[in-house]
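Deliverable D4.2, example record:
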Amino acid sequence: MGTTFNLELNKKATRKNTYSILLRITQNRKHIRRKTTIEVNNKDHFNPKAKQGNWIRTTESNFKVWNEALEKEIEEAKKAFRELKGEGLASKELIKSKINESETSSSFIEFVKQRTKDIFNEGGYRNYKKYNGFINKLEGYLEKSKKKDLLLSEITTSFLSKFESYLHSLHNERNPEATLHPSTIVLNLIIFKTLINRAIEVEKIMKPEMNPFLGYKYESATSTVKEKLNEAEIRLIEELVLPEGSLIWHCKNYFLFSFYLAGIRAGDLIQLRWCNITSEGRLEYRMAKTKKDRNIKLHQKATAILQHYFKDGSNPTDYIFPLLDNEAPFAKAITEEQKATLPPELIVKLSNNVGSKNALINKNLKKIATKAGIEKNITFHISRHSFAKIAKDNKVDNNHLKNLLGHSNIKITEAYMGNFETEETDSVMASIFGEKEEPKQELKALLDKMDPSQLEALLRDLKK
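Output generated by the structure prediction step:
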């Protein structure tokens, strides 16, 4: 009794106006059909005469992933056939039934680990750490439940509810006396939902109606009041006298330099090089988090800090601050594009180095707060919040502040309480730090505020 496995297109459109691809199982010239997980938007995207692995044409953007999914489904059908044949039960109806049983037995843990590995290989180390953290928490919950694996079919709204309760019981790594921050819990649930959506929409290993998040709602993280320093507290840090060249003195400089440069993030500051400083007295760099370019004028206080670190013989590619080793293997990668092409072990090493230096700075900032008489928990990131607060106190509107902070969304800026013209940025920064603009910029700013009739009147007066 010969058995064949082929694919064909269901020419009748679904309610979503897509076309299902069917697995056709044939025995003795009789057929039985079963829907695969793949649906195409256009009939022409399916090639009925294609050889193995090329059913979805390249005109469909997901052709590679979908062809792999179809190959996998055919292989699962053949595997079911072989198992049933060994038992003498290999009818086409039983093959279909066995496939349906095995479809929901895919390992979610295996899927998540592979996805996390792919993210790492694609250079997304920041997201890799988040996904890896999610895996650790999920496996911790399974271990507590005395389970070694989690199948897709086991992920229900009830499972999500129990997992969320488990997250609420976990201790905060940074503060063991407290539990996980609400935003961390929400982040893990968002990652969970993202993975489920990918399993359904891209990998096609889960049916849409099985999505547990359709019937599960979790609370968004409420905005927390972020610690900020006011101008008086910034002044206390500025005036704090510390032994020049000491670690705590350097950490004071790092914090203030960040503040003077609109709250440059720790990871970016630690990796700044002298080639990021232009001959026009500007700081140009690409933000590691958002991949956006920044171009900020160096004001007097920021320049004064840099003067402590520049030495005769400094190379343009040397790190500005004495935090990372210029001779380290990862130091050869200067741009964000070059860093993305580093071997995985060097990407990890660079990230770990940056993280440890950030922790070291934060440890010393707490000492600085104590010495300055500031009763607030100061971390490096507080420089961003403090800059945002003082900018708002100086009547800088949210759109200007959004661009100064390098936010992609005005809502992110508003949570702290892009791209506009560089000269306008300079003007705003000058107003915050009380520095007078260059005459050319002052004149341009004045002319920009004039309407056409006022400009004509000015030109007439100049000709007199």
